[in-house]
Amino acid sequence: MSISALQKERAKYQPKLPKSLRGDVKLVEGEKTESVADQKEIAELFPNTYGMPLVSFEATDTAAERQPVNVGVILSGGQAPGGHNVISGIFDGIKNIHTESKLYGFLGGPGGLVDHKYIELTSDIIDEYRNTGGFDIIGSGRTKLEEEAQFDKGLEIAKDLGLNALVIIGGDDSNTNACVLAEYYAEINAGVQVIGCPKTIDGDLKNEMIETSFGFDTATKVYSELIGNIQRDANSAKKYWHFIKLMGRSASHIGLECALKTQPNITLISEEVAEKKQTLGEVVDYMACIVANRANDGNNFGVALIPEGLIEFIPEMKVLITELNDLLAEGTDTEKEFKMLKKSHRNEWVAGQLSETSSGVFSLLPSGIATQLTLDRDPHGNVQVSLIETEKLLGEMVKTRLDEMKEVGEFTGKFGTQYHFFGYEGRCAAPSNFDADYCYSLGYTASVLISEGKTGYMASVRNTTSAADQWIAGGVPVTMMMNMEKRHGHMKPVIQKALVELDGAPFKFFVSKRGEWATGTEFVYPGPIQYFGPTEVCDQTTETLKLEQA
Amino acid sequence: MSISALQKERAKYQPKLPKSLRGDVKLVEGEKTESVADQKEIAELFPNTYGMPLVSFEATDTAAERQPVNVGVILSGGQAPGGHNVISGIFDGIKNIHTESKLYGFLGGPGGLVDHKYIELTSDIIDEYRNTGGFDIIGSGRTKLEEEAQFDKGLEIAKDLGLNALVIIGGDDSNTNACVLAEYYAEINAGVQVIGCPKTIDGDLKNEMIETSFGFDTATKVYSELIGNIQRDANSAKKYWHFIKLMGRSASHIGLECALKTQPNITLISEEVAEKKQTLGEVVDYMACIVANRANDGNNFGVALIPEGLIEFIPEMKVLITELNDLLAEGTDTEKEFKMLKKSHRNEWVAGQLSETSSGVFSLLPSGIATQLTLDRDPHGNVQVSLIETEKLLGEMVKTRLDEMKEVGEFTGKFGTQYHFFGYEGRCAAPSNFDADYCYSLGYTASVLISEGKTGYMASVRNTTSAADQWIAGGVPVTMMMNMEKRHGHMKPVIQKALVELDGAPFKFFVSKRGEWATGTEFVYPGPIQYFGPTEVCDQTTETLKLEQA
């Protein structure tokens, strides 16, 4: 395998650990916990794993006699920078506990556990992947561990391999399922512990005890590098508005963090749009006004950040989508009538069938997008919101709005657009120093939780805006983060998703600045992630964390 | 102005200069030059600037008494990383010649000269922009300096400011025009010299004396960072083919360099497609075969690099586009007939009007693309080739081909695609160490050429695969790089564009490897540009240069 010069040098990096994990470790139990909501229901659903105490680690002089632990690790869901360091942290951690400990990796995600596909992760393999991006060491996958049959199949291989524990590295859903699995194995006395690790570039798995999910730091740094480069281009050529869509369906943490780093002219935050019940027209007006104001100053250029999931946060779009799903549901009379129509007549007919409000929204859409909404449907017959090119939708609608404004003299400039979508560019970047350290510490923490016999815990590393040696490592019962939510029509216990808080410090800071950033050209150019060099450049974490912890 | 932590640290970087430029400099004249072709015509067109000798610089102990020089600088055309360092190199160079030298920057490209828009570039301004990306210090523009009226307007302001020289930083066209301007000012004894600097991320301004254009190194490093990250994602998720289009209409140097750095499964080189007279169907077959072969090994993922200009290099597409331009030319009877047709009947009608070959090609195109070719036309009524989303065109056609192969059992896998286009992401990145040094040296070289009274020269810095102190600085008469080419129906003297040479070392090396890269998964992950750290990581230039100079 050829590797790049950077990868070669970066392999030598020794991730920093919290002081408490550097020698012998003592576990300290804290207070008993409760779930964030719906305590009664959650306690009933998790009789064996509810109400457990928070735990933290402290350094100790007393070296305990420890047994080898055998661990299976699973990467679940979308890639995030640092996954390989979680695994190398687990490896080093269990080897430190006992040199005869063994680590197995299940291949291709949770499916590997069910299908008994695995490899033993030896030091030769681990060393090749230290401080690298990607999940390619064992691959990832999106199989959901939800059924007892899967749990039982998993237990077979766990028994065969003599596993003490499984570590599941995933987002909120995967960690919810990890907890259900922990509860099931505890209930049947399977003798297999389950520990979760908080992963997602989206940044929406966080709470009081989990300050950030890993990968968010690196991914937002990559996107901010590119946004900064594009801003510099915009400010040099002075002829385009760049509409940049950023990956992330649920929350706008990525957009907010990138905005704090780069200071673009426009940043849409889905949570704000939902809270203010903004219409698509209002969002477009907001953007068009900023474009027009800048044009008044002779600046016919700018940069706008758009969260991928925006459409689903606009109340009237949600309603429209629901109505379209009903109207065109497979096998209905209306769907048959729709299909009989000539293509050129369909959109008009659809508009006539919708409620007055939805009809108005539908008629406002550029015809290509309107057609897409009626044609591109998923296997369940639903509108495929993820296929909508939100950045182009907004670009076209802003153009239309500016044309109207031009006619009445409210816009005198030019409006040319370039579109971008950043997602895959950042999910597998080599982890920043922060993510390299954080992930390694999470993995190491997981190994200690296992050695201490814990199950149903998520590895937790806090105080992350301080230097790594001051970080506080420990574990949080997953049930503590849960509440009951409706999923596919049924109430289910799930980890509460962390959306952007409109009264949180990061958003409030952003709001205090966005006016200046819109009118002025206050672009900041963060440049690429640096791995060697001054600590001010290499070791900073996110603006979001700094503001949250300030 | 807020600046990022990296920008703050990077401002301290002192670009490296060739040894010959570090103290007092002696100019050494080399051999008289001839143009690469059409010597007679070029000599006649450039009586004052043809046949001048190559010049190079040497260190000397004899400090010459030098006069202040006043210089105007112009950034022309698309952005390229390092433009600000050319300007700071000129600034430091002329200040070194005499502290009373002055530098003026014309605003918004060549238009600034004609319209007399300029600023004086003082050390305060220069210091803010050292080692930064972008052209925002004075802006760039695409006005072409081609007419004597423009030259005369330029001379007015040059006289007002007491300029000894203009430095034009641009690509092949801008440098051609710089030479025409040099010739004109020499002819009328205007007393204003003109010096060019070789800029373009496309890498197509190079020859024996100009080893590389600035910006190519940095831009290809940024694109390779992103390609590497996407490759790692592809190899982790194992479910998508990523089709990545790379900026650059004329030459495929960018794609070739990125391929050498990252080893993707497929890289299309426009020059090869043209040389082999490949059809669109053949290109699609080539890609589909690689997809099918990888699927046979269970690998339903991969990465393909596609040069932006590909379509125009496919002979049958060129013919098709010409026929469409004739058929639908404004005001023709056929255009009127076309416009009277119902939209749904237009493509069929167009196919019927074309030659048999073109009709076949047109019918092969996905209908959306076919429609785009007939509808989206520029102000001259021509097909807008640049609007064609080549990556999607190929993706859809490969899909269709694979569906056919599936029916006869030649393809048994899955084919899902993600599309990307990288261009603006890299044009304004902060320059790599190589580009920071190279650009600064080019600017410094320009100042010496000016002080030595030269005009019609391009700054040249060679031996660039050695350490910077070993670089050879000097000047090359622009006429040496010229030949006669047809432009808008007339023969004109222009700098010969450097396309990828199919018998050159970089392409031959690529060909020797691409089979392995297609079948295997030999991805290399270069990671982001590093500015601090080991020289193996920070100071390497392009694979193209290394292979060319080996």
From TrEMBL, chains A, B:
<feature type="domain" description="Phosphofructokinase">
    <location>
        <begin position="70"/>
        <end position="332"/>
    </location>
</feature>
<dbReference type="InterPro" id="IPR035966">
    <property type="entry name" value="PKF_sf"/>
</dbReference>
<dbReference type="GO" id="GO:0009749">
    <property type="term" value="P:response to glucose"/>
</dbReference>
<keyword id="KW-0418">Kinase</keyword>
<dbReference type="GO" id="GO:0006002">
    <property type="term" value="P:fructose 6-phosphate metabolic process"/>
</dbReference>
<keyword id="KW-0808">Transferase</keyword>
<protein>
    <recommendedName>
        <fullName>Pyrophosphate--fructose 6-phosphate 1-phosphotransferase</fullName>
        <ecNumber>2.7.1.90</ecNumber>
    </recommendedName>
</protein>
<dbReference type="GO" id="GO:0005524">
    <property type="term" value="F:ATP binding"/>
</dbReference>
<dbReference type="GO" id="GO:0046872">
    <property type="term" value="F:metal ion binding"/>
</dbReference>
<feature type="binding site" description="in other chain">
    <location>
        <begin position="247"/>
        <end position="249"/>
    </location>
    <ligand>
        <name>substrate</name>
    </ligand>
</feature>
<dbReference type="GO" id="GO:0047334">
    <property type="term" value="F:diphosphate-fructose-6-phosphate 1-phosphotransferase activity"/>
</dbReference>
<keyword id="KW-0963">Cytoplasm</keyword>
<feature type="site" description="Important for catalytic activity and substrate specificity; stabilizes the transition state when the phosphoryl donor is PPi; prevents ATP from binding by mimicking the alpha-phosphate group of ATP">
    <location>
        <position position="173"/>
    </location>
</feature>
<feature type="binding site">
    <location>
        <position position="78"/>
    </location>
    <ligand>
        <name>diphosphate</name>
    </ligand>
</feature>
<dbReference type="GO" id="GO:0003872">
    <property type="term" value="F:6-phosphofructokinase activity"/>
</dbReference>
<keyword id="KW-0324">Glycolysis</keyword>
<dbReference type="GO" id="GO:0005829">
    <property type="term" value="C:cytosol"/>
</dbReference>
<dbReference type="InterPro" id="IPR022953">
    <property type="entry name" value="ATP_PFK"/>
</dbReference>
<dbReference type="Pfam" id="PF00365">
    <property type="entry name" value="PFK"/>
</dbReference>
<feature type="binding site" description="in other chain">
    <location>
        <begin position="424"/>
        <end position="427"/>
    </location>
    <ligand>
        <name>substrate</name>
    </ligand>
</feature>
<keyword id="KW-0479">Metal-binding</keyword>
<feature type="binding site">
    <location>
        <begin position="239"/>
        <end position="240"/>
    </location>
    <ligand>
        <name>substrate</name>
    </ligand>
</feature>
<comment type="function">
    <text>Catalyzes the phosphorylation of D-fructose 6-phosphate, the first committing step of glycolysis. Uses inorganic phosphate (PPi) as phosphoryl donor instead of ATP like common ATP-dependent phosphofructokinases (ATP-PFKs), which renders the reaction reversible, and can thus function both in glycolysis and gluconeogenesis. Consistently, PPi-PFK can replace the enzymes of both the forward (ATP-PFK) and reverse (fructose-bisphosphatase (FBPase)) reactions.</text>
</comment>
<feature type="binding site" description="in other chain">
    <location>
        <begin position="200"/>
        <end position="202"/>
    </location>
    <ligand>
        <name>substrate</name>
    </ligand>
</feature>
<dbReference type="InterPro" id="IPR011183">
    <property type="entry name" value="PfpB_PPi_PFK"/>
</dbReference>
<feature type="active site" description="Proton acceptor">
    <location>
        <position position="202"/>
    </location>
</feature>
<comment type="subunit">
    <text>Homodimer.</text>
</comment>
<comment type="pathway">
    <text>Carbohydrate degradation; glycolysis; D-glyceraldehyde 3-phosphate and glycerone phosphate from D-glucose: step 3/4.</text>
</comment>
<keyword id="KW-0460">Magnesium</keyword>
<feature type="binding site" description="in other chain">
    <location>
        <position position="308"/>
    </location>
    <ligand>
        <name>substrate</name>
    </ligand>
</feature>
<comment type="similarity">
    <text>Belongs to the phosphofructokinase type A (PFKA) family. PPi-dependent PFK group II subfamily. Clade 'Long' sub-subfamily.</text>
</comment>
<feature type="site" description="Important for catalytic activity; stabilizes the transition state when the phosphoryl donor is PPi">
    <location>
        <position position="199"/>
    </location>
</feature>
<dbReference type="InterPro" id="IPR000023">
    <property type="entry name" value="Phosphofructokinase_dom"/>
</dbReference>
<feature type="binding site">
    <location>
        <position position="172"/>
    </location>
    <ligand>
        <name>Mg(2+)</name>
    </ligand>
</feature>
